[in-house]
Amino acid sequence: MLSARQQDTYRFIRDYIARHGCAPLLDEIARGLGIRSRGVVHRYVQALAEEGVIALLPGRHRGIRLTDEAQAQPSLPLLGKIAAGRPIEAIQGEEQVNLAEFFMGPNRFLLRVQGESMVEAGILDGDMVVVERCQQAADGDIVVALIDGEEATLKRLQNNRDGSVTLHPANSALTPLRYPAGRVGIQGRLVGQLRSYC
After folding, report:
1. Distance CA 54, CA 46 (A)
2. Which of 14, 91, 137, 158 could form a disulfide linkage to 141, CB 3.0–4.6 angstroms apart?
3. CA-to-CA distance for 187 and 11, rounded, in angstroms?
4. Cα-flanking dihedrals φ and ψ of residue 147, to 5°?
5. Of 26, 49, 71, which residue sits at a domain end?
């Protein structure tokens, strides 16, 4: 079992290899994860190697590679486009979509939605949302907001000129919530959504 920080390290390495075609250096991993100590990163990398999700290649520059098991990313075939308005010609494609690349990344986590405050944004009770950790977000972003350090909610963010923050539901039956900025902490922003129909 990997610790949360080891999982973050693994995700960073995997995503870096997918983007750049080569493994990151320890310094790059440290910067990517916001860790100052190369020694700490080295311990995380060693733990990943011991778990068998990466292999270390001694004496090689950028000597980290994903194991065969780790490279077997979940994917589904992308067979084409489908109209959600007027019908269009069905054209079959052969592309594969890597689900890990689509939803996963450094500092991402899942939350299960409870309630109906975001239904008009297409986020329903029981859906799972993919959230990227951050402490700041732009107006209009859907964020996980922590109010008074105790209660978390998923809402659309508005930073007001007077320094207050308004959290907007996407449900016309509900009213926006307005707070002094000091009462609201941003925990992350919405980057994806999952829903199963069976």
Report:
1. 9
2. 137
3. 19
4. -100, 125
5. 71
* In a domain? residue 87: no
Same domain, residue pair 60 and 136: no
Spatial CA neighbour of 99 closest among 78, 76, 68, 116: 76
Stretch (H or E) spanning 69:
helix 68-71
Query: What is the structure's pLDDT at 2?
Result: 80
Using alpha carbons only, how large is the chain's radius of gyration in Å? 21
* Cβ atoms of 79 and 97 closer than 8 Å: no
Confidence (pTM)? 0.59
Query: pLDDT tens across 92-143, in order?
Result: 555 666 666 667 776 788 888 999 999 999 999 999 898 888 999 999 999 9
What pLDDT is stored for residue 21 in this prediction? 81
Nearest alpha carbon to residue 155 among 180, 193, 189, 112: 189
Q: Which residues are catalytic?
A: 117, 155
Q: Are residues 112 and 190 in the same domain?
A: yes
Segments forming the whole domain that contains residue 37: 4-71
- Give pLDDT tens digits for 151-169: 999 999 999 999 999 999 9
Q: What is the CATH number of the domain that holds 154?
A: 2.10.109.10
With 0-12 / 13-18 / 19 or more C-beta atoms within 10 angstroms meaning exposed / middle / buried, residue 129 is buried
Neighbours of 56 (CB within 10 A): 13
Domain boundary among 23, 48, 71: 71
